[in-house]
Specification:
The protein is α+β, with helices and mostly antiparallel strands. It is 49% helix and 6% strand. The protein contains 12 helices and 4 strands. A hairpin with a 2-residue loop joins β3 and β4. α1 runs parallel beside α3, α4 packs parallel to α10 and α5 runs antiparallel to α6. The longest helix has 25 residues. The N and C termini lie far apart (73 Å). It binds glutathione. Glutathione (GSH) binds next to α3. The site of glutathione (GSH) has 12 residues, from α3. InterPro entries: Glutathione-S-Trfase_C_sf, Glutathione_S-Trfase_N, GST_UstS-like_C, Lignin-Degrading_GST-like, Thioredoxin-like_sf. Keywords: Transferase. It comes from Alteraurantiacibacter buctensis. This is Glutathione S-transferase family protein.
Length: 277
């Protein structure tokens, strides 16, 4: 399979040429992780069905030596099942379970809220011929005008940034979500961040955000896959007067982040909770 080590990949981009969809980004990384060259079929939001010869209305989609595979998760399952001798994207079933749980937290916590903060920019940055479709379809999804949905984002962006602290905590202690090397968990979380970089006309993360190191290392992977010149700067978030800190300066240390190494490590807490008033 994969003649000349190449897989055909249906992309979904903005007019600046960079991929936008989180699903499509994660899939691009997945193909590179498996060591494939990618034959990119470019395009925007309209005409997907025609472009793919009636195979799909949604992207990503790949064609491997004539075999069509749809859906980002379906593609990953296909790649690992068909090419088990190449680096695994999901090296163990637990990675699938944990990545699905993480993704189910990530979307309502950050990805959806970010999309609502950038929905009008998203429309403005897409191809001219996509603008009508993107406006009407997204206004239907959101139930309001894109400009109205986007308004007030200055207040919301620091809150979204503060809410993604669990990623910072994990990535302070681990080089990648995949451990000592990246796997599909990294690409699945990275996909929406690169979506943000494709549409975010104002920065969403603080200049000194601790996540920056992991994001930039992900962008450097596979010859700088995440460094398309169309992508916009993510850092330099402005916090309005009295707004929340965009990340915790002092990491919260509770539960598994507060290691019990014997009584000396818990003495202060024990004294506090047993002290007679
Ligand atoms: N479950 C699908 C979801 C794919 C999806 O929703 N793709 C969107 C881009 S984010 C799409 O193709 N949209 C085309 C449109 O809006 O017409 C997957 O994981 O691949």
């Amino acid at each position: 399979m994969a003649a000349n080590n190449t897989i055909t990949f249906y992309d979904l981009t903005m007019a600046h040429g960079a991929t936008t969809s989180p699903f499509v980004w994660a899939t691009k990384y997945a193909l590179k992780h498996k060591g494939f060259d990618i034959d990119v079929v470019p395009g925007g939001f309209t005409g997907i069905l025609e472009r793919t010869g009636g195979k799909t209305e949604r992207l990503p989609a790949i064609v491997d030596d004539g075999k069509w595979v749809l859906d980002s998760w379906g593609i990953v399952e296909y790649l690992d099942a068909t090419y088990p001798d190449r680096p695994m994207l999901i090296p163990h079933e637990s990675v699938a379970a944990l990545t699905k749980a993480l993704d189910a937290w990530w979307w309502p916590t950050a990805v959806g809220p970010w999309m609502r903060c950038f929905c009008a920019d998203y429309r403005d940055l897409c191809f001219e011929h996509d603008k009508d479709y993107v406006t009407t379809s997204r206004e239907k999804m959101l139930g309001m005008k894109l400009e109205d949905m986007q308004a007030g984002r200055e207040e919301r962006l620091p809150q979204i940034s503060a809410a993604i602290e669990p990623l910072r905590m994990a990535l302070r202690e681990h080089q990648w979500l995949g451990g000592s090397s990246p796997n599909y968990a990294d690409y699945r979380i990275l996909g929406p961040i690169l979506f943000l970089a494709s549409v975010g006309k104002v920065p969403s993360l603080a200049e000194d955000d601790p996540l920056r190191d992991w994001i930039e290392r992900c962008r450097d992977l596979f010859g700088g896959l995440g460094r398309h010149p169309g992508l916009i700067n993510l850092y330099g978030l402005k916090v309005p007067e009295g707004g929340p800190e965009p990340y915790m300066r002092e990491s919260w240390r509770g539960g598994i982040y507060k290691r019990n190494t014997g009584p000396a490590s818990t003495r202060a807490e024990t004294e506090h909770i047993t002290k007679k008033d």
